């Protein structure tokens, strides 16, 4: 019963977002326009229906991209220049997390010849014989073990210690931590695109690779030595894959996933465009951009509502409703 109602609440949340945006699109409610709109995808599915906010159906994806191409000026981040600033309806398309299901829509991107930024948690996607793969996985696990079991592990020392391990030892250690980490988030569970496949994909200029850190943890909550590695090392790998080393998508991207230290260190490493998942109004002089989360709907009004920044107002509405509920408790 508990599970059923939880699923029901999730469904309500999902559809309330779609319908809210739909109203914006339908009535052309458009008072806060982004200078640049950024749409963000995660996972895809082919035939089996997955009612989850992180998944978009292949056919729906096709319709969404056709719609965007028709009505918006789709930007290639590699050619982003000041000419775009004056132009209206700028749209940047992004996919976070390097999930293997991106292969479902790879051909659609090629067919429709549309540039996409793929933000990769590159440390989790490396070859099986690369020690940085196991380092990244261990760091991901320890972060969650520390967080959920409140172990008070000294993360700075853990990070240093980990780098003294040889590959055989770290492989075993990773297995051990994998079992200990009971609250695995989906990023570590789901299969990533093979790194050789990524290399092939990036030969097509529509696939622009960018960093999404090494181990996909909350960058705000790690010590400096570890944070530096997440940024610098990931940029090295992205560079070796001919990606764009001036863009970075912050893992999770919500307001508790980064702070000024993170932003400053990214800037110190010559990152020109920083992407979060916040619902904010994007101007070109922002310190960072917000990405718009897209759901599994090809409805014209829903999509138009997204570009009209409906989710910015949706968030305000939800905050307001929460406030009312808490005041009346
Ligand atoms: Zn992510």
Textual characterization of the structure:
The protein has a domain at 37-127 and 194-327: TIM Barrel. The relative contact order is 0.17. The protein is globular and about 60 Å long. It is built from 13 helices and eleven strands. Strands 1, 4, 5, 6, 7 and 11 form a six-stranded parallel beta sheet that branches. A three-stranded parallel beta sheet has the order 8-9-10, with no helix packed on it. The protein is 47% helix and 12% strand. α1 (2-26) crosses α12 and α5 runs parallel beside α7 (167-180). The mean pLDDT is 92. By secondary structure, the chain is α/β, with parallel strands linked by helices. Zinc ion (ZN) binds at residues 96-97, 187, 212, 216, 251. Zinc ion is lined by residues 96-97, 187, 212, 216, 251.
Label the overall shape: globular
Structural class: alpha/beta
The named CATH superfamily of the domain at 37-127 and 194-327 = Glycoside hydrolase/deacetylase
Radius of gyration based on Cα positions:
20 Å
| Annotation field: number of helices | 13
Pick out the low-confidence regions.
Answer: none
Number of strands: 11
Element order: H for helix, E for strand:
HEEEHEHEHEHHHHHEHEHEEEHH
CATH architecture of the domain at 37-127 and 194-327: Alpha-Beta Barrel
